[in-house]
Design goal:
alpha/beta, 390 residues, Spore Coat Polysaccharide Biosynthesis Protein SpsA, Chain A, 22% strand
Length: 390
C-alpha cells in the first residue's frame, strides 16, 4: 500500500511526550501502511528514541541554533514521501480518527487545522491511551479550550468564510495540507527563530497563494497542558515577543501597525520603467508612500535624489510578493493618497490604462480584472514645489 500521509513532528528533548504521540499514532484508523512518521529533532542534546512501531518512522536532526520549529518542519518535509503532510507538535496526542479526518478535510487542496483540545497528560502512560479513547476509562483531567479560537471557527463556519485575517485560527500544532502547497510556497519561514508565530505566517502566505483554509472539528488532538492564557508566567511578555518576532514577515497592519518600515511591505507598488519622468517619480512615489506600510519599486531605474529606503530600483522578490496584501502596477504618472490605496484594495482585482491592482490571491486564482474608473493624474509640466504646496 502506498504511503498517503507523511506525519512531521518537530521535537526537542521531551521523550515522555513523544512516547505518547507515537503510541497514539499506532491507534490510527487509517492503518499503519497508509502513513509514515518523521521526527524532526531541533538540536536535542540526546536524540529521540522512537522505538518499534507498525508504521515507518525515522529521525532527522538539525543543530541547536535556537528555537527553530519552522526549520525543523521543513527538514522533516524533505525526508517524506506522502501526498499529504500532517504536522503535529511533539506535545500533541491525536485521537484514533485524527489522520482520517484530516485527510478528508484536506481533500488534496486545503490547508486544514484540526481541533486542539487540552488535558493534563503528565500522569498518562502510553498504554492508557487505548482504553481512554475507546471508553473514556482512566482519562486525564480535561482543561479548558480557548474561547477565542472556538468563536473564530463558529463565526467563519469552520473557516469556509476565511479572509485575510483568518490565519489567526490556524494552529501549527495540528495542521495538514497537500505536499504541493508546501513546495509551491517554500514551506515555513526559517527566518523565524524563537517561540511561536511561524504557523500564522505560513497560513497567511498559503491563503495569499490561493489555498483555501478549513477547520476539521472531528480531527481531535490533545495538547499536554493548558492554552497559553492559562499557563503560569508572564503571558503578555510572551505574546508581545511572538508579535515582534513575526512582524517583519507578516504584513497584517493589526499585527505590525502602519508607521514602521519593514523588509516586506503590506502594499507593493511597481512603477513601470519609463512610465514617469524623474519629477513624476518623486511625486508619484510620495503619494503612494503616504499610504503607510508601502514599498515602491521602480523598474530598472532609480529616482534622482530619492534615498528613501522604501523606494528601490528593480523588482520585488518572491518573498515580498508572496507576503504583501496588494500589488499595484503603475503604468502612467498618477496622483494617489492613502484613501486611493484603500479604495484600490477594496476594488481589486481592478485596472485601467493607468494602473492595475491585484492581491497575490487574485493572481493565484486567476480572477478577472474589473474596469477601474480613471485615476487622477499628475499635471503636465509638473513643478514639484508647487505640487507639494497645493
Amino acid at each position: 500500500m502506498t504511503v498517503r500521509i507523511s506525519v512531521v513532528v518537530p521535537y526537542f528533548e521531551h521523550q515522555r511526550r513523544l512516547d505518547l504521540l507515537l503510541e497514539a499514532l499506532e491507534l490510527q484508523t487509517v492503518g499503519p501502511a497508509a502513513f509514515e512518521v518523521v521526527i524532526a529533532d531541533d538540536g536535542s542534546s540526546t536524540p529521540p528514541d522512537v522505538g518499534r512501531h507498525p508504521y515507518a518512522v525515522r529521525v532527522v536532526r538539525q543543530a541547536d541554533l535556537g528555537v527553530r520549529p519552522a526549520a525543523a518542519r521543513n527538514l522533516g518535509v524533505r525526508a517524506t514521501n506522502g501526498a499529504m503532510l500532517a504536522f503535529l507538535d511533539g506535545d500533541m496526542v491525536p485521537e484514533p480518527g485524527y489522520l482520517a479526518a484530516m485527510e478528508r478535510s484536506c481533500d488534496g487542496r486545503h490547508l486544514v487545522v484540526g481541533r486542539r483540545r487540552h488535558a493534563d497528560l503528565s500522569g498518562t502512560a502510553p498504554d492508557a491511551l487505548a482504553p481512554w479513547f475507546r471508553s473514556g476509562a482512566g482519562g486525564p483531567p480535561v482543561l479548558p479550550e480557548p474561547e477565542w479560537l472556538a468563536r473564530g471557527y463558529r463565526e467563519s463556519r469552520d473557516l469556509a468564510d476565511a479572509d485575510l485575517r483568518s490565519y489567526r485560527f490556524v494552529i501549527g500544532a495540528t495542521l495538514a495540507c497537500p505536499r504541493e502547497l508546501v513546495l509551491r510556497t517554500g514551506g515555513f519561514a526559517e527566518e523565524v527563530v524563537g517561540y511561536g508565530g511561524e504557523d500564522w505566517e505560513f497560513a497567511r502566505r498559503c491563503w495569499l497563494a490561493g489555498a483555501d483554509l478549513r477547520h476539521a472539528p472531528d480531527a481531535v488532538a490533545w495538547h499536554d497542558g493548558p492554552d497559553l492564557a492559562l499557563r503560569e508566567g508572564d503571558q503578555l511578555t510572551v505574546k508581545n515577543a511572538e508579535t515582534v518576532l513575526i512582524a517583519p514577515l507578516l504584513t497584517d497592519p493589526q499585527l505590525r501597525g502602519r508607521g514602521l518600515v519593514w523588509p516586506h511591505p503590506r502594499v507593493v507598488v511597481r512603477i513601470r520603467d519609463g512610465a514617469c519622468s524623474a519629477a513624476e517619480l518623486v511625486a508619484c512615489a510620495s503619494g503612494f508612500l503616504a499610504g503607510g506600510d508601502v514599498g515602491v519599486w521602480i523598474g530598472g531605474a532609480s529616482a534622482p535624489g530619492l534615498s528613501d529606503p522604501r523606494v528601490r530600483s528593480g523588482l520585488p522578490g518572491a518573498g515580498t510578493l508572496g507576503r504583501c496584501e496588494l500589488v499595484i502596477d503603475v503604468l502612467a504618472p498618477v496622483a494617489v493618497d492613502a484613501d486611493r490605496i484603500a479604495a484600490l484594495q477594496d476594488a481589486a482585482p481592478t485596472g485601467n490604462a493607468q494602473l492595475e491592482a491585484r492581491s497575490p490571491r487574485d493572481v493565484a486564482l486567476g480572477r478577472p480584472t474589473s474596469e477601474l474608473p480613471p485615476v487622477p493624474t499628475l499635471p503636465d509640466g509638473l513643478q514639484l514645489e508647487a505640487w507639494f504646496a497645493r
